[in-house]
Amino acid sequence: MKKLVCSIFFLLFIAPIGAQHLKGTIVNKKGEPIPNSTIYIYEVLRGVAADDLGQFQTALQPGKYTCEFRSLGYETQKKVINMGNSDLSVNIELQEKSYVLNEVIVYPDGEDPAYRIMRKAIAYAPYHQYQVKKYTSEAYIKGSLTIDKIPAIFKRAMKVNGGNFDFNSLIGKSLLLESKSEINFTSPETYNQKVLALKTSIPKEFNVSKGLSIMTSSIYNAKLDDRISPLSPGAFRLYAFKLENVDYKDDIIVNKIKVTPRKKNPKLFSGYLYILENTWNVYIADLVASELGTSLHYRINYHPVKSFIYLPTTYDVSMKMNTMGVKGSGRYFASIKYNTVEIDENRKPSAIAQKNIEAMVSEKPATPKQQKIFSEIEKLSQKENLSTKDAYKMSKLMSKATEPEEVKKQRESIEIKDIENVKMEVDTLALKRDSTYWASVRELPLHEDEIKSYQVSDSIAATDSTGTNNKKDGVVLSIDDNPKTVFGRITQGGRWKINEKMSLRYGGLLGVMKEYNFVDGFWLGQSLTYNYNIDKVRSFSISPSVYYATARKEILWHASTSLNYAPMRLGRFYLSAGHLSRDVNSENGESRLMNTLVAIDFGQNFIRFYDSRYVKAENYIDIVNGLHLYTGAEIDKRSALSNRTSYNFAGKAIAENIPSDAVSYPNHTATNIILGLSYTPFYRYRVRNGRKWYEESKYPTFSIAYKKGFNLFGNNPAPSYDRLSFSVSQNIKLSPFEEMDYMFSSGVFLSSKKLYFNDFKYFNNKRMLFSPSNFHRSFNLLPAYHSSQKWWMEGHLNFQSQYLLFKNLPFLQHFYFDEAVHLKGLMTETKQFYLEGGYSIGFLGLGRVGVFTNFIDKKFDSFGVRISYPMWNIFERPLK
Asked: What are phi and psi of 156, to 5 degrees?
């Protein structure tokens, strides 16, 4: 009886005041559905995105509502709708838009009027970025994804969050996701999102709970969804603009501006911006971006949530994917309702931008610096036509005037803090919402294939007792290179995890042959590495290696230990000892693995070997931020080595090793100490997992190093010298697509009583066709083992651009490569000036191909080709 009374009470009193649904279809005059349409309901600040069939739905309380129906290419229509106590269906017919351009001013210099508009929009972008102090909103998201093809190699190797997954189960099926969330925004860019409801047919292994990243990006930022916004400072260098149409509405003027990237680059957009005259807000953003065969089309609609405050109300993002054999497509819709919007009182909006500036100036800023900024903004805002220089200046000043103190502190801080701007919380009931709940919040109708997708997913979930793994937020796709079987680890090598603190890495049977050269023959042996984690940030390792040199018929060995003892000061200590054949140019010699290949294949030897029995200690530590100290000491018993074998596949006669005899290279014991300091002013860093990682500085790095050789054992020959060197280097980001790198150094032997080959100053010189190092700070055609015994001056200058020469050709802009020019110079006590220049092409950071030529005392010397392959360092693990 009690339940019956409660039910009657609900039906009579509660149900009538509940939300009803406004449903409808948006069509053209032929009755055809208009895709990409949006609805905005002014009274409740709600945006609703219609689907490809022009269909929409939203819950509304009974009452009178002013609804705006909008779609690109059609006249906007406003309609007053009276909602009763039952669902209401409407059919909205939009008329095709006719634009006018007869009142557009064409300037005498032939400049397109779009540039006048965009200068204003870019100048005022910082103001629009920070004008809202906070808001609370609700978001409904509906996304679908269909994967048509995944290459077999990916199916076999790919892991999902570290686990196996049957990717065949995804092919050709519609995957659906819906979510209802509360989003609270706080300036400058903090988003707290609580997922109230989540329904998806995406397999649980992917743990999908996040919304669209575009929803937490602002077009007024320098970057929109990690791409360069057309409203960013410097946009005129990257984009061309054209005013295509002007739409005169009752109370606003909308300028349709075509956005064309000057270069085809995945970091740039193409498409259209619709800019409001006088206030310079974005009205609609219709932008496209493409990268590696995947294209994304963003359609973002903005509506007034307060007077002259336009915020995004609907998002429509479509995706087409054809990357590395993976094919598919997707579509995402988002509808936003704003519950509260609070304007920053220091940035009150006004109908006219100039009046707003006057209001800001009238607030009498506290400091003379602020007064000067506002005064300059006022002067610029009164100009009818801003120049590009004025627009950049005003944008910079506006940013200073409106930038929150929090952003300024982050920008000026030495430590770059990884602030979690988007915080996600999933309600405990999110995955348990029933069909009644979804019927009340769903703003896009489900289609037949989507309903079927849910039904299949629900049937799988009903028979799956494992539950949903919520330990990971999002999905991590990876390829595991560690063999899974014991046999695989024995043959291929791998890492064994002993416990939480200890692990062991073994080189594998395939790594038994370490090297081949003509003085040693084959190196046959093995290496082990034992790692011990002292705590979460400090670690210790020991690496012993033993090899048998087949031609020398000797045991070669090496042992090293390392200790990371002060991660926040980059404190590292290394101790090593061994009996090996080493390169005379131990500081920056050639790749030994590459030398192995050319020796056995072609009978060439690019390394000068000597016999070394040594012990060495090194320590690195930050004294203060940016000031790094290096100290090292080594005792090295040296002797000459001669070739013991000449075997090579080509059957070529081989050159003798240098030094190879005791006359030119007598046995001796060298004792060296080195002290080095490097300083980078305002060197910004991040802290990750309790460890300091340097990131960037706008200043050069200055270095000084002192090295001394002396006789520690009086009864043995030994080198005796003092060497001092200086250098300055820097990498400068000139633009998003250009950078310059330079390094200049010089040095002098303060004394040189006794020098052996090892003690000369050698230069970074790559004579082999292939090299694991880049071209920026090395020579490529310098004579082998060119050295100095008195003084030297060296310089490297490199300019790298994604659009330098060939990339400017339109038909090549689809390809992913960059270009660089290199200029290098060297002078030593011989007074001969060595000059080297080159041009190279790089491929996504994976490698470079370069052509170089050199001159000695203005006379042409040689020409060569070099290939840099940094990935080679993965295969080569030199003994240090």
From this structure: -75, -35
